[in-house]
# Entry
Amino acid sequence: MTALTPPSLHMSPREAAHVCAALPDLRAQVWQPLAGGRVNRVWRVGALVIKLHHPAAASPLFPNDAGAEYTALRLLEGTGLAPSPVAGGDNWLAYRFVEGQPWRQGAASIGRLLAQLHGQPTTALPFRRPPTGNTAILADAMTWAVRQTLPPLPQVPASAPVRLSFLHGDPVAGNIIGNDDKALLIDWQCPALGDPVDDIALFLSPGMQLLYRGSRLSADEIAAFRATYGMADVLARYDLLAPLLHWRIAAHCALRASQGHDGYAEALDHECRAVHAAQT
# Structure
């Protein structure tokens, strides 16, 4: 999901050859770098977006899988939830360019967006299955968390088994195009078959909002999101697991901060406050 410095937008001859072998018309077109990515390199080329993945930049919480992203785009084609895929290869993919700006306002539209995604068919989804339930989430996070800078482990009640849903895996503001009326998700490199509360926690995360939007959500924005998301059972489970879910996001921020990544120390502080608030 993130890197120490923004990725170089240089493309090696070998990388260019792989992409242009599949899409030869791109050779004669202008490649315009697109800003915003923290890990992967992205260009606009005519009506297409070309994305080169850097798998080594994955983190425990956020995989970086080009093949999974291309599969997700194909499965969601025609739903309005994701861009239309064009081609894919070894650590790269191409999809149709989507007009618009990264999300900044209109949390109600994101509630509708995630509810639509979480209602998609899940039969035979070929994606990873992240841990669900308090015991499994904690056991996984403890394998990589840097606990010295984290609040005490929150104690949350056991949650009932859940119906698994199609997850984006990283629905932060920088991965959403659109605002009040209509929004669409990009950067599908970590899709999953899992508990919808994972996506909800990441969107509502004050640390992630700070990193990608520049400010945390207001109480009114959170209420608007919840009202349009509408799945009462999922929201109740999120409320139950929120201290642990935000502790895990804080653990991600602590790990990135310890590696020298910009912005994560402040994000960690905000996420630790969210852990405390969720327990009061």
